[in-house]
Amino acid sequence: MLVTMLIIGPILLIGMVIGLIISLVQAVTQIQEQTLAFVPKIFAMGVAVVFVMPWMFQRLLEYSHHLFAMTN
Predict the structure, then answer these.
(1) Taking burial as the number of CB atoms within 10 A of a residue's CB, which of 7, 12, 25, 34 is the most buried?
(2) Which is it for the CA torsion 35, 36, 37, 43, positive or negative?
(3) Average pLDDT of span 3-15
(4) d(CA 72, CA 70)
(5) Residue 28 belongs to what domain range?
(6) Which residues contact 25 (CB under 8 A, 6 or more apart)?
(7) In sequence order, which residues have a C-beta less than 8 Å from that of residue 52 and are 6 or more positions away?
(8) What is the pLDDT, as a whole number, of residue 31?
């Protein structure tokens, strides 16, 4: 479970920060458009996946090697 949180954590954190920033902007400007919050979060999380993917695969590979080593 720790590996899952470690792998998905950066992407969720980016989505949360972008959502918080957009919510603050919406509250200040009193714009209450639902898609205004959704589209930038999806875009930012997609960009984060592209940049974090090599690191994520490396962690998954290490975890898989560890699991297979435990079975021997």
Answers:
(1) 7
(2) positive
(3) 91
(4) 6
(5) 2-71
(6) 31
(7) 10, 11
(8) 83
pLDDT in tens, 25-70: 988 988 888 778 888 899 999 999 999 999 999 999 999 999 999 9
Q: Copy the structure tokens of residue 55.
A: 């690191």
Owner of token pair 């079975």: 71
Six token digits for residue 68: 């297979």
Token pair recorded at residue 65? 């090697």
User: Which residue has 């998905």 as its token pair?
Assistant: 8
The count of structural domains within the chain is: 1
Residue corresponding to tokens 């999806």: 42
CA dihedral sign, ordered 8, 10, 15, 19: positive
| Residue count (the chain) | 72
